[in-house]
Amino acid sequence: MNDGVIQQVATPDEIYATPANTFVAAFIGSPPMNILDAEISILGGKIMGIHKPTGTHMDLSDYKFARHPESGQPIKVGMRPEHFALGKAPGFDVAAGFALPLAYLEKIGDRGVAFLKVDSGLLAAGVDFSTFRPPRAGETVEALFPGDKFSVFDAGTGTRM
């Protein structure tokens, strides 16, 4: 609910995996879903989301759009922190790769979250410390994201596309 209006009715797993809008995406989960501003670019049959501040191209070709997006359309791209791989992509096709400076780490046992500097905010990426040697604050970290885990929202309405 947001201001007394129901935003989405579904099972908890469905709400987490496919939030209906950016409010639900940011409300459910800790840390919440990362949401970046981007723009659609259709290149040679591929649907790309371009995050202009970093120049990162996100391959959205496998995303199941409710309606075909248009080139130049502003969007918001959602990525859950636990779907990132830092440094290496273990067993998935990389659809987006961010090279960002580390702001800080939160460690809970052998897992945690790396907070990377992006735009004027932070991008949260899950970390498995048993396989990842954390860098020092300020060092660049490569954060990789799989194509089957994106959430895409209309930038104007905030609704899932």
Indicate the low-confidence ranges by residue numbers.
Answer: none
Residue share in helix: under 10%
Major β-sheet, in short? 5 strands, antiparallel
Largest sheet strand order? 3-2-1-4-10
- Give the termini separation: 20 Å
Alpha-beta classification: mainly beta
Note the run of SSEs as H and E: HHEEEEEEEEEE
The pLDDT mean sits at: 94
The counted number of beta strands is 10
Q: How many helices?
A: 2
Proportion of residues in β-strands? 35-45%
The shape is globular
Features:
single chain, 161 residues, mainly beta, five-stranded antiparallel sheet, 2 helices, globular
Give a short summary of the structure:
By secondary structure, the protein is mainly beta. The protein has two helices and ten strands; from the N terminus they run H-H-E-E-E-E-E-E-E-E-E-E. 7% of the residues lie in helices and 43% in strands.
Write the layout of secondary structure elements.
Blueprint: H1 12-17, H2 22-27, E1 34-43, E2 46-51, E3 56-59, E4 74-79, E5 85-86, E6 94-108, E7 111-118, E8 121-128, E9 140-146, E10 151-154
Antiparallel strand pairs: 1-2, 1-4, 2-3, 4-10, 5-9, 6-7, 6-9, 7-8
